[in-house]
Amino acid sequence: MTLTHSRWTDDAKMYKNVGKTWQEILRLLKLEIETGDIDLKAKMMYGMMGAFEFMLPKTTTVEHANQAGW
User: How many angstroms separate the CA atoms of 29 and 57, rounded?
Assistant: First the structure.
């Protein structure tokens, strides 16, 4: 698999954090493909994210992403 992330800023800290995030996303994807499940840590994290979803700005909705052409 080849992953290309564009739209970088000159912020080196952000670049490093995004790299770590993609590593974790790909690790979970590989785990789910190989085992059909993800680890408890990820399940808990996704559960918490879902619980606080109401606090996110409206610009993070799927509808907004579709309008923006993402």
Answer: 26
DSSP secondary structure code for residue 53 in this structure:
G
SS3 percent helix, strand, coil of the chain, rounded to 5, is 70, 0, 30
How many C-beta atoms surround the C-beta of residue 31 within 10 A? 14
Name which of 25, 55, 53, 51 is nearest 38 in CA terms. 25
Tokens of 10: 């000159």
Cα 25 to chain center, whole Å? 6
Per-residue pLDDT reduced to its tens digit, 12-36 = 777 777 778 888 889 999 999 999 9
Please tell me whether the overall predicted TM-score, pTM, comes out greater than 0.70 for this model.
no
